[in-house]
Amino acid sequence: MIILKTPDEIEVMAQASRVVAETLQVLQKAVRPGITTDELDCLAEQEIRSRGARPAFKGYRNYPKTLCASVNEQVVHGIPSKRVLKDGDIIGLDLGAIVGGFYGDSAITVAVGPMTGRNARLIQVTEEAMYLGIKQAVVGHRLSDISYAIQQHVESLGYSVVTEFVGHGIGRQLHEEPQVPNYGKPGQGPRLQAGMVLAIEPMVNMGGSAVKVLEDRWTAVTVDGSLSAHFEHTIAIKPSGPPNILSQL
Ligand code: MF3
Ligand code: CO
Question: pTM, whole model, 2 decimals?
Answer without folding.
Answer: 0.98
